[in-house]
Amino acid sequence: MSSAIAPSAGPSKIIIPDLVSHCTFDLHLNRHHKQASVESKRWLFRGDNNLSEKSRKAFHGLKAGKLTAMCYPNAGYPQLRVCSDFMNYLFHLDNLSDDMDRRGTRAVSDVVMNSLYHPYDYYSPARLNKMTKDFYRRMIATAAPGARQRFIETFDFFFQAVHQQAYDRANGVIPDLESYIAQRRDTSGCKPCWALIEYANNLDIPDEVMDHPLIRSLGEAANDLVTWSNDIFSYNVEQSKGDTHNMIVVVMNEQAVDLQTAVDFVGDLCKHSIDRFNEDRHNLPSWGAKIDRDVEVYVNGLADWIVGSLHWSFESERYFGKSGRDVKTSRVVNLLPRRA
Length: 340
What we know:
Elements: E1 4-5, E2 13-15, H1 19-22, H2 33-45, H3 53-62, H4 64-71, H5 77-98, H6 102-117, H7 127-140, H8 145-170, H9 177-187, H10 190-200, H11 207-210, H12 213-241, H13 247-255, H14 259-282, H15 289-315, H16 324-330, E3 332-334, E4 338-339
Antiparallel strand pairs: 1-4, 2-3
């Protein structure tokens, strides 16, 4: 049994930045969110006899269905269910990878990627095989070829980055800031979620448009905000477990600054990412009326992710327990003791 270790020195709290006020995007909620959330959790729990009651309660407190409904507010029910299932699935993978070495992450990657590339032919006794094929078969029924390709390609990037993260964790490596940013854009799992924006809104945007530097920059800015803000919100829980895959730890290590200075530094980067998103959005070129409408829907979807993830972080119990709303107002986070 792990035991608490009271820190002998160091801060007892941090003040997190006010990112919610800096983000002026409207917050929306999908009208199907209650039904999709209930059915998606039922889908996740089905057939998993190894999932403890504690883990089930944690998934209820996670409120992944609420996050999905905020990030895909205009999706129809079938599309929202796929997105909700993937979101629960992604958090499930994240929990699994926290306890895995490189061999474990490689084994999971092999099952998942084979299931995506061969959704009707590949079989493995692993439960992930059945789960992956189930949501992906429903997705490809209506997803455009470009969206399917981007989903698979970026999910592969996710596993490559998680594999490197497992290596760094095992060897006590804290990367430099530039390397961390590049790796974190993939370990976040945001990129396949951007492909789901196309799927959820029935978009078929040409590859040359999706590859345009400003479209890529918009996706990167949204990824950075979601990811870096998550590093701030999750820092307390992660530091209590000794996890160093966090931008705050990287900044403290590279710049030799104290904890609050590092939190403020990451907070400023988050605000700059929102500003960068707004600037890129304003400078988008025109590709003709039809494509412009689809691009607007896609970019709005990225904005939904930015604002939705910020508000959800305080509604979920994953980072602040049941005190999320108080933390949202006060911005004070009392640090947990380290666990042995």
